[in-house]
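Write out structure tokens for ABC transporter.
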Amino acid sequence: MAAIQTNGLTKYYGDVRGIEDLSFDVREGEVFGFLGPNGAGKTTTIRTLMGFQSPTEGSATVLGADIADASALREARSRIGFLPSEPGFNENVTGRRLLEYHGSLRGDVRSDELLELFDPPLDRRVGDYSRGNKQMLAIVLAFMNDPDLMIMDEPTSGLDPLKQDQFLEFIRAEQERGKTFFFSSHILGEVRKVCDRIGIIRNGHLVELEDIESLLDRTGKVVRANLGDSVTANEFAIEGAHDVTVSGESVGPATAETDGGEDSKTVSFTYTGTYEPLLRRLLNYDVLDLTIEEAPLEDVFMRFYGDHNPEETVERVENERGDDRDGGGTDDRNTEAADV
Ligand SMILES: Nc1ncnc2c1ncn2[C@@H]1O[C@H](COP(=O)(O)OP(=O)(O)OP(=O)(O)O)[C@@H](O)[C@H]1O
């Protein structure tokens, strides 16, 4: 059974599209990253899956419970942890009080262990917490009853880089214990560290769904080299190099015919090939500095989906996915808001 299954899930806010026709599944035991730029529909998806709002059309199950079935969803939620993007706490009480309160409602089997990793100042008023401390408290509250499925909306926001890494490491360890994760992010770097598969959402549509390695292979790397010798764009017209730039000025895609006429010692481009030809080419130069990094997510969108009509992209993805669907779920329409 899939941990999460959506079928044509759609949510409109009046005339405003939140999400449209989302169909995907999250398998038990996997870490699934849900990526998209601001306003893409990530929070809408999560809030709909949690039963906080009802879909306009389509259906979904979470740990087997139909999100339109309030009592089934309530029961399933005892095994689901939720980490919202902006935890809304009662700011007048201490963290410890909230911990006790949540523990009495949902159970507490591991807050001591969690507090060793994520350590908000429990005896202070939550209203005096920094954003990072609030997020750490939210993490402890979400995990303290040891849920099987964790749904998280931008979970690392507010955490400093060290805590972010610690949190991602924690996710990996939890996955080893058989836990399932569905989380939204707009940071490709963080999802690549932990996710098995990712879905990319844009303008409310799912435009990509695949395992992380395949996506990164297609995305390519951003290469930037400072050379001791002068270079022109044409010299890096190797297969797999895109948008070769010298001196910070784009000269367009490199081809054998193209030579931007630039004379510079810095070259940068996106590269989608294997490393060997790239390194061979670089060996012809006196390389003073070299960085090879993942492309920012926004660039990924621009490269693959920049001018495309989302509907066309969705059609392509659907065709590519073909028989990859389980086909479960119901065909409920216009369901009532779940009472959770
Ligand atoms: N309560 C609401 N009322 C009206 N429109 C909404 C509401 N919530 C979201 N929307 C709209 O739905 C679309 C998707 O928003 P959503 O918050 O789901 O995106 P997101 O991917 O989570 O963005 P972000 O990363 O900025 O949080 C946006 O156009 C947004 O303006």
